Amino acid sequence: MNGIRSTLHTIAPLLLVLQTLHANASPQDSPDMVAIPGATYEMGCDPNTDYVCSYVPEEKQHSVTIDAFKIDKYEVTTGQYTRCVEAGHCDMPTIGGLMHYGNPEAAEFPINGVSWYQARKFCEWKGKRLPTSAEWELAARGTDGRTYPWGFEEPDCTRTVMDRANAGYLGCGTGDTLNVGSKPKGASPYGVMDMAGNVWEWTSDWYDESYYFNSPRNNPKGPKHGELKITRGGDFMSRQGYELRATGRFPYYPSNPSPAIGFRCAK
Question: What Gene3D superfamilies does UniProt report for this protein, alphabetically (predicted)?
Fold first, then answer.
């Protein structure tokens, strides 16, 4: 009995330290993933609530059913991606300008300057994958038809990292992105962070403007081939609300890096 008490006395301080480290862990150190239950929802732009729909017929509203999955609560950070490079699995992304890699002050900013192929490789290193566009949209807006992750209210810097209509206010006046998870009021219905603003996010889907007119009802994965990959969510340079809508899509060349594009993983 005395031996047991001695052992407990020895390990108690260690447990306290571990608990403290866990409580104070930053997003980049956290393995957080959010479980998204399987659901049927109306994907695409709802003309009854969104005036932009008439300008984007390729966002035709249609019903899809998605199996349960998990998605990263936060965008992949520069610190996380740097560790993948240091482990010899990931390629170094583009550097310079507004690119975050190599900037010691950007460890908890979302990684940017990564191609689609580099993003996919990181997710595979983590035993994950890029989300499909349909999964991403479900995680961003749920099943109630909202326009933005937080609801229907127009975006502002209390909810998302963006510019403003008259420009000159990039990243809510910071000139860059902010740390991932810095806008909790903008969380999605499931608690997923930064699904509007900060950086656009790569998904696994190829882009075809007519895909929504004949896509599969169950777990659509996008066209089998294409030239452009779909990014979702808007970025820190977005000036108008329509750029940050949860239904919006931005096709981009998969080999091209951008300071405005990052990613998160799913499984």
Answer: paralog of FGE (formylglycine-generating enzyme)
Extended beta strands in 59-217, E state = 62-66, 69-72, 200-206
- In percent, the amount of the chain with pLDDT more than 70 equals 88
* Domain ranges, ordered by start, for the chain: 28-262
Distance CA 201, CA 235 (A): 9
Does pLDDT of 262 surpass 90? yes
Residue 243's SS3 state is helix
In the chain, beta strands by DSSP E: 33-36, 39-43, 62-66, 69-72, 200-206, 229-232, 250-252, 261-262
Q: What is the dihedral of CA 133, 139, 142, 146, to 10 degrees?
A: -70
- Each residue of 81-112: pLDDT tens digit? 999 999 999 999 999 999 999 999 999 999 99
Q: Which residues contact 210 (CB under 8 A, 6 or more apart)?
A: 58
Phi, psi of 27 (to 5 degrees): -55, -35
Report which residue type is found at 97.
Answer: G
One-letter amino acid for residue 247 of the chain: T
Query: How confident is the prediction for the chain on average, in pLDDT?
Result: 90
Residue 117: count of CB within 10 angstroms of its CB? 12
CATH architecture observed for domain 28-262: Alpha-Beta Complex (3.90)
Cα separation, 241 vs 90, in Å, equals 34
Q: Which residues contact 244 (CB under 8 A, 6 or more apart)?
A: 148, 155, 160, 162, 196, 197, 233, 234, 238
pLDDT score of 12 more than 70: no
Location of structure tokens 């993948």 = 84
